[in-house]
Amino acid sequence: MSDAPRPFRVLPFITPDTEPFWTGGAEGELRFWRCDECGHFLHPPSPRCPICLSKQLTITVVSGRATVHAFTVNHQLWYPNLDPPYVIAIVTIDEQSDLRLTTNIVDVEPDDVFIGMAVQVTFEEYDGVWLPFFAPLSGAAT
Amino acid sequence: MTMEIGERKAVISGIGQSQIGRRIYRDPLDLTLDACLDAIADAGLTRDDIDGLATYPGNMTTPPGFSGGGITEVQDALRLNLNWFTGGIELPGQLGSVANAIAAVAAGYCNHVLCFRTVWEASAQGDQSRSSVTPGGGGGGGYRASGFMQWMLPFGAPSAANWIGMMANRHFHEFGTTREQLAQIPLTQRANAALNPNAIYREPMTMDDYLSVRMVSTPLCLYDCDVPADGSTAIIVSRADAEPDLRKPPLRIEAVGTALRGRPSWDQFDDLTTMALRDAAAMMWERTDLTAADVAIAELYDGFSFITLCWLEALGFCGHGEGGPFIEGGTNIARVGGRVALNTHGGQLSAGRLHGYGFLHEACVQLWGEGGDRQVPGDPAVAIAAAGGGPLAASLLLRRD
Questions:
Q1: Which chain B residue lies closest to A129 (C-alpha atoms)?
Q2: pLDDT tens digits, residue range B163-172?
Q3: What's the complex ipTM?
Q4: What confidence tens digit (pLDDT) does each residue in B42-55 have?
Q5: Which helix (H) or strand (E) holds B76?
Q6: pTM exceeds 0.95 for this model
Q7: B98: which of A37, A99, A141, B167 is 20 to 30 A away, CA to CA?
Q8: Do B253 and B11 meet the contact criterion of CB atoms below 8 Å apart?
Q9: Does A142 score more than 50 pLDDT?
């Protein structure tokens, strides 16, 4: 473990709708609301499925595997101890082609990140919130 | 069903601008009133003629310097008697407020709408970090992010530089766009700013300068980001049949684009290599027989240089994905001899972040032939003013009789 002070992270205000997402990491689970009727995964949460308008939604665990769709290497210091450079990315969750998250790509040199890279969720807990970061999928070609 | 092009019942009759600068430490309402009175006089009107008032984003206190006051402050300061007013931020970008004013005039709610936008981000920033970024919390405390920002801030992504940087990288990946190509936006605009006495940065910029300045969020470097400024811009939208009362030949509003046909989100929008501006531009062209080939002047939002590239593509000056080759070398977008003169005042990158309204002001300046040293030759008759990035966008197609 590094002795470096932990970065400051702004945390989300958690609501009943978002609580399963932001706390799923406690069980190592990446979770989204999913429509019982048509199978669509929702993000962000909404009271109805935006595709078929059903209200029958269930929290569903996904594999945690994703693909880097877009990324940037941030070089600006925005927060105490969140030292640049670090990678901000939009990843596409494997289960649905338009299910995206903005996240950080971790456990890899920024210069080695590429669009199309296979990644796997990894959680870090900050004050009861499990932030979903993504790391290169072990065993995947890089 | 035939489509009624209601925006043609409205015209632009006058423009005004305050002092513009970095950290001028003037009361933002003072700047606003300077711009408003300048615009009213430019139109040949008096404040008694103004019966509509429109602004973006309305009165708000954060981010610091982002708003110089709202409807209430200006109405009271000028003792205006209003039939109609609007101020707010949930609009198709900054020029959405002008689109609202056009609609109100076309509907007959009012005769002359004073539209204004004021920023004082340079003074609000002082010697601190960039004021238009609100990281939230800052070193502890109990702040928690909600709404859209909850999906960005925990990942150290508080700035549009991060969000637009991802889009730009995706564009580079899909189409082979390069930093040397993108550089032509800031380089071209700096050359234009050298001819604009009101621009903030006027000294020459070279490709070496661009490639050696510090990176902010790849592929965007410092010179891809606009410069915080203090200043106010005002525009008068009038009924077309008010022409006999006006001082100058009014500018026709040929078509307006305000569409948003994808998800209203910086990261969930369907195609990250374009933005809502794709939809605004498409709507605008659906409402006119003119095409990009008719346009002499393009004043296109550049909060980040990459947004301008996207506007050029969406508006049809080149195809989707062809923006890099189109701007390479800068000849197609040169003020003199280009296929279209781009951001002739220097844009927000060099003339200062007046946040959208500066583009409409400059389009009017050029159509009225008031550009002085930077006037585009050839008596330009058709111009586009467009503002917004990400899920926010509106465009106006203007022409002179």
A1: B154
A2: 999 999 999 9
A3: 0.96
A4: 999 999 999 999 99
A5: helix B71-78
A6: yes
A7: B167
A8: yes
A9: no
Closest residue by Cα to residue B92 from B396, B397, B399, B398: B396
Domain spans of chain A?
19-136
Is A72's CB within 8 Å of B133's CB?
no
Q: Does position A1 have pLDDT exceeding 70, yes or no?
A: no
Domain ranges of chain B: 6-126+226-399
Cβ distance B169 to A18 less than 8 Å, yes or no, reads: no
Which tokens go with A40? 């669509």
Q: What is the pLDDT of residues B334-363, one digit of tens each?
A: 999 999 999 999 999 999 999 999 999 999
B44-95 tens-digit pLDDT: 999 999 999 999 999 998 888 999 999 999 999 999 999 999 999 999 999 9
Q: CB A44 to CB B158 under 8 A?
A: no
Min Cα distance A115 → chain B (Å) is: 8
Strand A41-42 relative to strand B220-221, pairing: unpaired
The Cα angle at residue B351 between residues B266 and B86, in degrees rounded to 5:
55
Q: How close, in Å, is residue A70 to chain B by CA atoms?
A: 5
Mutate to test the interface with A, among B144, B155, B306 (most CBs of A within 10 A): B155
For residue A76, which residues of chain B lie inside 8 Å, CB to CB? 159, 161, 216-217
- Asked if residues B64 and B125 have their Cβ atoms less than 8 Å apart, the reply is yes
Q: Do A13 and B145 touch (CB under 8 A)?
A: yes
Is residue B343 left, alpha or beta, with left meaning phi > 0 and alpha meaning psi from -120 to 50?
A: left
